[in-house]
Amino acid sequence: MSAGAPGTRPGGSVDFRDAQRRFAAHLRDPDAHPAPAGIEERRLAVYRDLFFRNIDNFLRGFFPVLHSLYSEQDWLELSRGFYAGHRAETPYFLQIAEEFLVWLDSGFQPRASDPPFLKQLAHYEWLELALDVAEEALPDAGFDAGGNLLEGSPLPSPLAVLAHYDWPVHEVSASHSAPAARDTWLLVYRDRSDRVRFMELNAVAARLFSLLQSPGSAGRSGRELALAIAAELQHPEPESVLAGAGQLLADWLARDVVLGTRRG
Fold it and tell me: Where are the beta strands (DSSP E) in 154-213?
């Protein structure tokens, strides 16, 4: 008995799911997957262009700085590599940016045209997007907005994220596309006016904020956290670290990075 054509069942009926898979594979990577039989090439060309351009336009919008670093051809190769090689776990358009990061960490093969900070710049741009579209809002109650930030336990914003990079990705632009590598701590946050902002922190300030967000520090006062950092640094003048922490906490409160002090 001869086997039926691919995508058909015994008796000649079409396996619709298999036909869909073959069609989708061709749209993703027409060079590796031949076109299904019975579909006019003109229509296939329209589908190929429509589907790819849709994803590509999202990537350009989600990663504008990254896009600005590439020639059009190099960008299209990067975008097509993601489109053809990644199997997304979500159908939501807003999560395409996150799927792009997953691909960069898994199926991506660096090329000569890719900057060494590609993954970290993409993460920074995604982080800004994620905070911008986050449905969570800053709370208005459940804490003391006027509490003493050194004597009380400072409450960090749920819409503030500390990120560490090996390059100053916040300084990258089309005109500054080759920054020197340096340890960079960025505090990215959304304030009460729903604007996403960032600030660069030094290592001590970054350590203070990481302690604020640590579950084990929920009941510790700002003073305790500052003195713990002074001990880690073996600083000869702990009071100067304490004074600096007080200034940082007051600044973060004004910027909506810290909401106030915890109650109880």
Answer: 154-156, 160-165, 184-190, 196-201
Tell me the CATH number for domain 16-114: 1.10.150
Q: Is 120 exposed, middle or buried (0-12, 13-18, 19+ CB in 10 A)?
A: buried
Phi, psi of 210 (to 5 degrees): -65, -35
What is the residue-wise DSSP string for 94-108?
Answer: GGHHHHHHHHHHTT-
Q: Hey, what are 49's tokens? A: 């262009």
Residue 173: HSE in the Cβ half-sphere, 13 Å Cα cutoff: 3
Rounded alpha-carbon distances, angstroms, from residue 145 to 155, 241, 253: 9, 23, 8
The pLDDT value recorded for residue 243 is 97
Report domain extents, the chain: 16-114, 143-262
The predicted model scores a pTM of 0.85
Contact 124, 163 (CB under 8 A): yes
CB distance 185 to 160 below 8 Å: no
**In this predicted model, what pLDDT tens digit does every residue of 138-183 receive, in sequence order?**
999 999 999 999 999 999 999 999 999 999 999 999 999 999 999 9
Our measurement of the distance from residue 152's CA atom to the centroid of its chain's CA atoms, rounded to an integer in Å, reads 32
Instruction: Confirm if 187 and 201 have CB atoms less than 8 A apart.
Output: yes
Q: 143-262 — its CATH code?
A: 3.90.930.50
